[in-house]
Amino acid sequence: MTDERADERRAPSTALEVHARHADFVWSTLYRLGVPSADRADVMQEVFLVVHRRVADFDGRSKVTTWLYGICVRVVSGWRRTRRRRPEVPTEDHLDAPFAATQESSVAAREARVEVARALDGLDVEKRAVFVMYELEDLSCAEIAEIVGVPVGTVHSRLHAARAEFAECVRAGRRSAR
What is the number of alpha carbons within 13 Å of residue 138 lying toward its C-beta? Predict the structure, then answer.
């Protein structure tokens, strides 16, 4: 095992050490799991409260990031149950285009973002994370498997299921909009 891999499995001594080394990973994981920017800091705090309570239980059988990913999934699942399904509506500051669009194209772009947000919100957190990492962040299935801590075959099956559910959510949204 290389020094880097051994260090990744070494039990962190404090939650502060975990935060210092992995806060960016937790932040991006919460994004991938669909936590809106307005709630992400609060959910991240909940994750690190769990880390604080459980850091002594980390046994090094997995990577620290895999352990953190599992905590993030459980915290986000609980957060989703309690937030009563009020999806975040993307605002104009989420636009990627650096140019001023016409009003018609701006409305169409906003409606498309809302449709994608609703469809993503319809996926369970584990499928959503795999879908976002593969389709939006261009990570390979092997990279996703390492982050999530599952076999590559599991990533493939989650991605397949997520694509089907995403497509069905988009179709259902379009049918209800008519």
Answer: 0
